[in-house]
Amino acid sequence: EIVLTQSPGTLSLSPGERATLSCRASETISNNYFAWYQQKPGQAPRLLIYGVSSRAIGTPDRVSGSGSGTDFTLTINGLEPEDFAVYYCQQYGSSSWTFGQGTKVEI
Amino acid sequence: QVQLQQWGAGLLQPSETLSLTCAVYGWPFSGYYWSWIRQSPEKGLEWIGEINHNGDTNYNPSLKSRVTISVDTSKNQFSLNLNSVTVADTAVYYCARVSATVLYAMDFWGQGTTVIVSS
Fold first, then answer.
1. CB distance A50–B61 less than 8 Å?
2. Per-residue model confidence as pLDDT tens digits over B19-62
3. For a Cys staple, B36 with which of A38, A54, A73, B48, CB 3.0–4.6 Å?
4. For chain A, which residues score pLDDT lower than 50?
5. Which residues in chain B touch residue A40, judged by CB atoms under 8 angstroms apart?
6. Strand-strand pairing, B91-99 and B18-25
7. CB of B77 closer than 8 Å to CB of B3
């Protein structure tokens, strides 16, 4: 299975700053089957980005995804209070999914 | 708007069978795969398996021997059975929709069910 490794584990930033989150895959991810999710305490994950760089419905345009092959990035420009949460990357391949271990963005 | 509502027993003893059900409201059941995912502090988010309206299934190889996912299309529901549970199966369990429209990401999720396995 493809292992996803996220870094850093925790990102301490202030509102208005830029957050850059990384996700590295153990193998090349094909067909752009790669997504990012946001999770807040007590809630289910929420889809933010799919297909590496496409925003899901409701995702603000300050949030963007990029990358290819084995290296992927989630960028949040101008952090708003509602952006402080945990973020997970996910890949789909061979009829199964794996997730990264998460990056916490904290104030 | 798609809504997934899930329910099931929250406290189990070791060796028992975990059973959860997820009902889908507000959207056709066919044309999608429907997944179960669990989350624990030890393992993070872990995909368990999926099913479509025809009953075609895919399972996580690490859980395959203990997992059964079934579907009741007349009720727009799908269910998870995980047998021979241990303390390691303690987690929050989620159901979710998988959509080709978002390149096989999971675009709608249930509210989660906390399952605790303890003697």
1. no
2. 999 999 998 889 999 999 999 999 999 999 999 999 999 999 99
3. B48
4. none
5. none
6. unpaired
7. no
